[in-house]
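dumping this here so i dont lose it
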């Protein structure tokens, strides 16, 4: 109740339903009668001393607000019982807020972004045997990164350019020391992925509202423009295949919405992988390159999915109540790490030995 009656620092960070939200008034109407809602509003509006909410509750409902809140809590528990048949991973972090961007390494560690609302945004490295994640580097909110076991971390983050302009630029961060080195100035690179050998990168460049794919060397220098889009196409969340032949990414097109597409690096052409009314996002190749892990809202909830490239069959890996995003896997048959959403915000999760589940059917067409 105290979280609702005042500004809060916990998730969702000061944004709560005004005067308790629709469920509270549905509870009042069912328990005490619809006319009590009108009386609550009228008496509250006529208070000489503002914000006398507790007195208002006693006068209209003859209940102290603390006791009334207990009744309301039990009402919600009965109305919204725990979801049956959930399949979720083990929660590994306790940061909440906007934690995100997980990338797994073959040694079992995971690098992710911490945006917890209480401390500076940072890149952290979680290790199975460590009691707490290791701090790697300070970053900016809204950063996106990729990592390579040998080449290190490349991160795209907003940075000032020429004193007043904010552009996404690329930085290299050493995976062991956390030492940061700026690669571009005014680069406008929103997403980036390492080549399998760690010698090159491909980044999504944004200029004048048009996205393009730029091939860069490991120092961030432009080698070649691979593809240029039009105003009706947006690229996001790209990943380079283990065999080096293609990219997978989320693509928004004016006529089809968000879908997964594969970009053939030799032919410089796109091939659609999905065409559904759901939103597919954050694709990552499996370690052997045979499938793509991604998040999509089949059935109304974002869950982890797996798309077999040979057959196009999509299976579901999680069945969560809040949401599952940004899957990453470093070893074939190894665990899938992901960012899960709960009542405290987003956190890092581990799903051991994911088993295929049926995926809710959706219609073909634009998302």
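and the seq i came up w/
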């Amino acid at each position: 109740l105290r979280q609702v009656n005042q500004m809060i620092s916990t998730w969702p960070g000061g944004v709560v339903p005004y005067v308790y939200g629709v469920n509270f008034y549905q509870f009042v109407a069912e328990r005490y009668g619809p006319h009590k809602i009108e009386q609550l509003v009228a008496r509250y509006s006529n208070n000489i001393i503002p914000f006398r909410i507790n007195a208002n509750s006693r006068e209209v409902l003859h209940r102290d607000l603390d006791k009334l809140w207990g009744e309301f809590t039990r009402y919600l528990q009965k109305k919204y019982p725990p979801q049956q048949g959930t399949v979720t991973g083990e929660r590994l972090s306790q940061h909440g807020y906007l934690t995100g961007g997980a990338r797994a390494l073959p040694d079992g560690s995971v690098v992710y972004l911490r945006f917890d609302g209480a401390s500076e945004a940072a890149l952290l490295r979680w290790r199975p045997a460590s009691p707490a994640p290791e701090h790697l580097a300070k970053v900016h909110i809204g950063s996106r990164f990729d990592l390579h076991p040998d080449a290190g971390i490349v991160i795209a983050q907003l940075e000032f350019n020429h004193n007043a302009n904010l552009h996404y630029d690329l930085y290299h961060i050493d995976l062991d020391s956390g030492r940061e080195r700026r690669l571009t100035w005014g680069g406008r690179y929103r997403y980036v992925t390492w080549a399998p050998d760690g010698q090159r990168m491909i980044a999504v460049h944004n200029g004048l509202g048009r996205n393009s794919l730029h091939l860069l060397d490991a120092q961030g220098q432009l080698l070649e423009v691979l593809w240029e889009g039009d105003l009706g196409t947006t690229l996001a969340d790209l990943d380079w295949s283990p065999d080096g032949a293609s990219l997978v990414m989320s693509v928004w097109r004016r006529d089809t919405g968000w879908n997964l597409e594969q970009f053939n690096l030799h032919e410089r052409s796109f091939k659609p992988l999905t065409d559904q009314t759901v939103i597919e996002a954050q694709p990552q190749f499996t370690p052997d390159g045979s499938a793509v892990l991604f998040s999509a809202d089949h059935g109304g909830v974002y869950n982890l999915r797996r798309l077999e490239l040979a057959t196009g069959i999509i299976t579901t890996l999680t069945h969560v109540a809040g949401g599952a995003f940004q899957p990453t896997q470093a070893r074939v048959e190894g665990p899938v790490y992901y960012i899960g959403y709960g009542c405290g915000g987003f956190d890092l999760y581990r799903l051991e030995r994911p088993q295929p589940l049926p995926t809710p059917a959706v219609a073909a067409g634009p998302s």
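The chain is about 15% helix and 40% strand.
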